[in-house]
Amino acid sequence: MQSGRKDLGYIEWRWQPHGCDFPSFDARKMLEWNRNGRIVFVGDSIGRNQWESLVCMLAPVVSNKSAIYEENGSPISKHNGFLSMRFQPYNLTVEYYRSPFLVLAGRPPNGSPDKVKATIRVDELHWYSKKWAGAEVLIFNVGHWWNEDKTTKLGFYFQENGKLNMTMPLMEAFRKSLEAWKLWAMKNIDTKKSHVFFRSYSPVHYIQGKWDDGGSCDTKTEPETNAVPDEHTEFNDHIADVVGGMNNTRKVQFLNITYLSEFRTDAHPSKYREPGTPPEAPQDCSHWCLPGVPDTWNEILYAQLLSARSRKEPRGVHL
After folding, report:
1. 284 included as an active-site residue
2. 36-312 maps to which CATH number?
3. 70 vs 121: CA distance, rounded Å
4. This protein's superkingdom (predicted)?
5. Is 287 a catalytic residue?
6. 87 strand-pairing partners
7. Which of 144, 195, 205, 287 is catalytic?
8. Catalytic residue list contains 66
9. pLDDT at residue 8, rounded to an integer
10. CB 49 within 8 A of CB 43
11. Is the peptide bond before 223 cis (omega within 30 degrees of 0)?
12. Separation between Cα atoms, residue 256 and residue 303, nearest integer Å
């Protein structure tokens, strides 16, 4: 169904639905809809996975490939900070901001115990947030860093109202961070202009262990026929609840991709990681190969945007 892709190779995108009315992705329309604008992804490296997928899906319809470039000259292999791919013929940028907690992680308050290496400020959005507002399309994701391995075990504890709280439960902190995001969104996003999506949790598929103790997925070569729901559905419950509470507009939507992605245990890099990765390195069963599952997420994103445009355009008029 899809052509092969190497890195950001610009290859013709082909997708044909079978037995359904789901609209096929039209890169030219997507670019035209957002001409002179911005599409912004915010979140962890799985969000970056989806960002790279969309760049690859849009690129084939631009004939002059030199007119597509990273604005700051950064290689797309850069994992920190932010990346911004400009599609010059459309004066459009497709941007990714690395913010795995959405809220800010930084130095602990003075006088904190030595075991506290940093704090996650559950009531303060990342300072990158000033760059997010004003985009025509925003896609947020979060969840993969909200675990003990990447918080308390690393000496990262929670902070609220400027005060350290070393007993706050993880999911309570997660919920508070979503409420902080909601307040920011209600204050800073023009819902008459911007379409806002919060993507659900992306499943991981480690078998017989976790990522750091021998877990693998390289033996899977076909999709599952009976998917088992991911154990992290509590993340989705909180995200869906917070987004559902923003009932002032239909432009803020929960983009649920968890269950459909659960079937693709075969779609991760596994042991076939980036060149130069040591053979003994852990397998990657959380990120996704491209082309692959994130392309489907972007197909759904496109369908949602198409539906929104159809509602506001005169009957029979479609760009």
Report:
1. yes
2. 3.40.50.1110
3. 31
4. Eukaryota
5. yes
6. 68, 92
7. 287
8. no
9. 35
10. no
11. no
12. 13
CA dist., res. 95 & res. 83, Å (int) = 6
Beta bridge partners of 195: 137
> Is the pLDDT confidence value at 3 over 50?
no
3-state SS record for 226-279:
CCCCCCCHHHHHHHHHHHHCCCCCCCEEEECCHHHHHCCCCCCCECCCCCCCCC
Q: Parallel, antiparallel, or unpaired: how do β-strands 252-255 and 137-140 relate? A: unpaired
Instruction: Provide the mean pLDDT of the chain.
Output: 88
Q: What is the β-pairing status of strands 252-255 and 68-70?
A: unpaired
Determine the Cα–Cα distance for residues 135 and 194; give it in Å rounded to an integer.
6
Q: How far apart are CA 234 and CA 93, in angstroms?
A: 33
Assigned token pair, 308: 């929104």
d(C-alpha 90, C-alpha 132), whole Å? 20
Collapsing DSSP states into helix, strand and coil, what is residue 181? helix
> Residue 50 corresponds to which tokens in the numbers above?
């989806």
Q: Tally the C-alpha atoms within 13 A of residue 169's C-alpha that lie toward its C-beta.
A: 3
Residue 185 in tokens: 């969104």
**pTM of the shown model:** 0.89
Report residue 299 as tokens: 């197909």
Of residues 283 and 226, more confidently modeled: 283
49 token code pair: 């996975």
Write the pLDDT tens digit of every residue in 43-91: 999 999 999 999 999 999 999 999 999 999 998 887 789 999 999 999 9
Which are the contacts of 150, defined by CB distance < 8 A and separation ≥ 6? Answer: 100, 156
Catalytic option among 45, 74, 84, 112: 45
Catalytic one of 44, 230, 266, 284: 284
Which residue ranges make up each domain of the chain?
Answer: 36-312
